[in-house]
Design goal:
Elements: H1 9-14, H2 20-36, H3 40-61, H4 77-83, H5 85-90, H6 99-124
Length: 137
């Protein structure tokens, strides 16, 4: 949606979901997160983290920096090449051709984090083994 309507997306992204359809959407999402993380705090935090990521990525990808206001002291490409070698090396990966693979990598890392958090949570709630009672001889 963000790429289809980049000028509309910021309005949608920043609009509160405080209407019946919006809270129903949040409820459905929280059910999914709670199924993965059966701890209310962790499910809520994971929901927020994924929301931050998805909305932030879409806002960043549709910002059209080239059309926006410039810095008070714009930096020339030559300056970046000479003074900021890490930025110069990273710059190609900030382009739209890499948006999808970058987003996918981040999403995979978050899913992996959820899986690790779930495993940790499940390990901490496993019932203790029952003691073995042996008859006296």
């Amino acid at each position: 949606m963000a790429h289809r309507d980049p000028s509309l997306f910021p309005l949608v992204a920043l609009h509160r979901l405080d209407m019946p359809a919006g809270v129903a959407f949040v409820e459905r999402m929280l059910r999914h997160f709670h199924a993965a993380l059966p701890d209310d705090r962790q499910a809520a935090q994971a929901f927020r983290i994924f929301g931050y990521y998805v909305i932030g990525a879409a806002l960043d990808e549709t910002a059209d920096y080239a059309a926006g206001p410039s810095a008070a002291e714009p930096v020339a490409d030559e300056f970046i090449a000479r003074e900021c070698p890490r930025l110069a090396a990273a710059a190609p990966y900030f382009k739209p051709t890499h948006f999808e693979s970058t987003f996918d990598l981040g999403f995979e890392l978050m899913l992996k984090g959820i899986a690790e958090l779930r495993a940790s949570l499940m390990a901490s709630v496993r019932p203790a083994p029952k003691p073995v009672v042996r008859p006296k001889a």
